[in-house]
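Lab notebook, bench 4. The sequencing result for the construct came back, and we need a structural model before the next group meeting so we can plan mutations. Quick request posted to the team channel:

Model the 3D structure of this chain.
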Amino acid sequence: MSLAALLIAAIAPTVLADPAQEARARSLESEIRCVQCENEPIAQSTADIAADMRALVRERIAAGDTDTEIRSFFRQRYGDFVLFRPPFDTRTWALWAAPFLLIGAGLAAVLTGRRRPSAAGAEIAPEEGER
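Done. Here's the predicted structure in token form:
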């Protein structure tokens, strides 16, 4: 029975004493991507690295770091990919602009296709109609 209690205590995250800090920790844990799972936030991941990252978030909050400082720490350590919402800068502008560029290219293709006269709509000369 004591072995089970130790395992549960090791797996369960430490709860911060201040409810505001606990809310910040949960919010940050849902914004940071697990580097092993890649499509899960560390709040939902069961990977060992995610547990380490959750503990690190809580340690840094307890030490007095701001949310921006914690995001910057993880971004410097793991790159832009670790954040679900990477910042807009010179390295990520294409990521942010891609949806708008693709929509614009699609609209341009549709409009260009509609403006071309179709062969079925062209008038036939009387001589060509008799052939």
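Residues 88-117 form one domain.
Will bring this to the meeting.
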